[in-house]
Amino acid sequence: MRNNIFTIGLVLASLVLVGCGGSEPVGKREPVYPVSGTVTYKGQPVADADVTFLCQEKNMSSFARTDAKGKFKLTSYASFDGAPAGKQTITVSKLASAKSTTKEVDLNDPTYDPLKLVEDAKAPPPKNSIPEKYADAKTTDLFATVTADSQTPEVNLILQD
Asked: Residue 50 pLDDT > 60, yes or no?
């Protein structure tokens, strides 16, 4: 009996391990190449901006978040591994976090109205701190080409009004 339980446990563990693999084997992945750069707006580095490179040819995207100096390194499969070779459409956005409108509530207050509380809590959507045109692949004017020889120069994204 003990051997049967051990065997069943071993089979289940094997099935779990087999099922945990990615949907795409590493050998079948599109090769990527290191890409880094800087985002500036009005002559200043843009911290905490989301940068996305969209490679239409490969139907693939790579992304990064800028640091305090506006610098970024792209990620596709693993941290900072890069982007696929090809022409890239670049989007950049920096959403300001919405301020909380929640306030202290006295449930014993005779004027307490939970529906009013819900209505008061509705905050406007976060606003982009940089021009909206950069947040949409259809309106951005930022493009770059990633080369397969790993010699893609640093991509400097200078945002303008």
From this structure: yes
